[in-house]
Amino acid sequence: VLENALRARQLDRTLTTAIAPLAAADGSTAATGINQLDRVLHGGFPHGQLSEIAGPQSSGRLTVVLQAMAAATARGELVAFVDTFDRLDVASVVAAGVALDRLLWIRGQAITRTDAVTDLRDRTLDRALTSLMLVLQAGGFGLVVLDVAEVPMTALRRLPPPTWLRVQRAVEGRDSACVLLAPEPLARSAGGLTLTLTARATWSGDADSRGRVLTGLALEGRVISPRRRINDRLMLSAPVSQAV
Hints:
By secondary structure, the protein is α/β, with parallel strands linked by helices. Helices cover 28% and strands 27% of the residues. It is built from 7 helices and 10 strands. It has helices at 2-8, 35-40, 61-74, 90-96, 118-138, 153-157, 163-171, and strands at 29-30, 45-46, 50-54, 78-83, 103-107, 141-147, 177-182, 194-204, 213-225, 230-239. The strands form 2 sheets. The protein has an 8-stranded mixed β-sheet with strand order 5-4-6-7-3-8-9-10, with helices on both faces. β9 and β10 form a beta hairpin.
């Protein structure tokens, strides 16, 4: 009786359960539209899984997310972006090619880095997580993004331990790919992906010249997904205006 109850609630799988590695299949991933990255990801971000893009500011993390959102709307899918601290720049969204009529933008409360009100920051983060859960439970979105890239790691570490497990359970088995945008690797479901990014600046003009101009960033990424048997590195390039 206990085994049947656990199976009915999908609680019969554990970390030690032998599960075959996931294989890429048609319709199982949300392609980013960046061909080199999609090859490494085995098609894109997997549906029904929590994946993450991590990196410091100006590492290109938002560039990748916006390209994935644009690719999803080009396929006719709906996308949702949970903007914890209301930092999303609409001009960048339009420049990336995201169809605004297929975008649900959930805006949180604008909080600057100088705001030291811990309770306010925690409440804003909690509202963002609640919004994410509601979107995942509603369904119908090809790609759902939670942006916590500007949330201090101290605040993220204060979250209750089951927080990300609840998110993983909410997206499991759905046709949505859920992507967490974070300053460093934070949470990933068993079949999800972790993409960590770093950037190296490229310049034009002489090094000693005042006319030296920052022209772009070379992005280095590392992709990890044990269940999908991915542990690879790649190099991408981005215009400096998009590397955020």
